[in-house]
Amino acid sequence: MVFPSEKSLPAQSVTTLQPDDPIEGMIIGQSVAIQQVIAAARKIASHATATVLIQGESGTGKDVMARAIHELGRPTSPTSLFIPINCAAIPETLLETELFGVEAGAYTDAKVSRDGWLSRANRGTLFLDEIGSMPLILQAKLLRVLETRSFRRVGGTRELHVNLRIISATNADLQAAVARKTFRQDLFYRLNGFPIYMPPLRERREDLPLLIEHFLRLASARRGGPLEISADAMRLLERHSWPGNIRELQHVIERGNILCDNNVIQPKDILNALPVTPQYADQQVIELLQKLQFPEGGLDLPALLNTIEQSFIQEALKRCGGNQVHAAQLLGISRDKLRYRLAERGAKRPSV
Q: What percent of the chain is predicted at pLDDT more than 70?
């Protein structure tokens, strides 16, 4: 499979936005599952103030779908902005002022009045990613915005009115969060005005060749020359379970592009780019066993296994710069299990 530089591709094959059909090149696939999603996006795009809740696993393209809905609705307001907010990435104390804006003198550092994202998204789209992470106190204020299309800046008394589309996204089960009382039920129903479910890649495997073609084309454009993928490497991609969905596929192609020789992605490049899975872990165990020899005098198997485990844990932490979440992913265990192993090691360490 060969993909030339994007500059040399025929105009009709380049996956870029087309003025008459903005969703082309953003949502890629021909499966029934993704075509249903595209049909839903087209229907809701013409309703400029409808609330949309996009649900799905991490890496399924919820942010891309939100932007596609915005682009589809732009002909009525070509200058409208798309304002994306990650509710999980912003501290609670900062999120309120960033969302609603602030009046001069509201607090010590507020020297001048400042608009928030709601004001900037007026006549456009406000995209609230990871909405399940929004603090309860802000959920109540967001509910009021949805009901009245008005709000006050932090420290302000004047009502500001906006006309905008609010799209939310989450990979969490909001109904379960409602049951745990960590998410407001009334807000859930308001946000869920028009639900869209983004299917995981394993439910739309027939779209895999098209997605691979898309990411290879992008990689070809970046490297300024053609990029190929061998048939064996393609089969490896087709057999993978893709727990990280489209984002994982994109990263694997990017890493394969870097690792490959002679502009051809081979199976070895894919194996080095993919995270360790049981399918490949068995082969790694075999290779390790071939390097080991059983001592003539016997051994302390529990101690040896513990030493090996701790050695790999420390190596994983070193590779991940001490980040326990990433190290746990590299080891194929949960963060809690990794923390337990580290605590256990600390408890067994003799005191000085």
A: 84
pLDDT in the model for residue 306 = 85
CATH code for the domain in which residue 130 is found? 3.40.50.300
> Which residues are within 8 A (CB) of 299 and not within 5 positions of it... i.e. 6 or more apart?
none
Written as six digits, the tokens of 350 are: 């003799």
Report how many helices (DSSP H) and strands (DSSP E) the chain contains, helices first. Answer: 15, 12
Pick from 292, 316, 318, 317: nearest CA to 305: 292
Token pair belonging to 53: 């809740």
- Report helix, strand or coil for 263: coil
Backbone angles phi, psi at 200, to 5 degrees: -70, 165
Torsion (CA) 271, 276, 279, 285 in degrees, nearest 10: 100
pLDDT tens digit sequence for 273-331: 776 554 444 455 555 665 667 777 788 888 888 888 888 888 888 877 788 887 887 78
pLDDT tens for each residue of 185-197:
999 999 999 999 9
Q: Does some domain include residue 283?
A: no
Q: Where are the alpha helices (DSSP H) in the chain?
A: 32-45, 62-73, 92-100, 117-120, 136-148, 174-179, 185-191, 208-223, 231-239, 245-259, 267-273, 278-291, 301-319, 324-331, 335-348
Burial class of residue 302, CB neighbours in 10 A (0-12, 13-18, 19+): exposed
For residues 81 and 121, membership in a common domain is answered with yes
CATH assignment at residue 225: 1.10.8.60
52-64 average pLDDT score: 95
pLDDT at 186: 96
Nearest CA among 260, 208, 212 for reference residue 15: 212
The model's confidence at residue 104, banded by pLDDT at 50, 70 and 90, is confident
Q: Residue 123, by phi and psi: left (phi above 0), alpha (psi -120 to 50) or beta?
A: left
Output the domain CATH number for residue 336.
1.10.10.60
Q: Looking at the predicted structure, is the pLDDT value of residue 242 above 70?
A: yes
Q: What domain range is 315 assigned to? A: 299-348
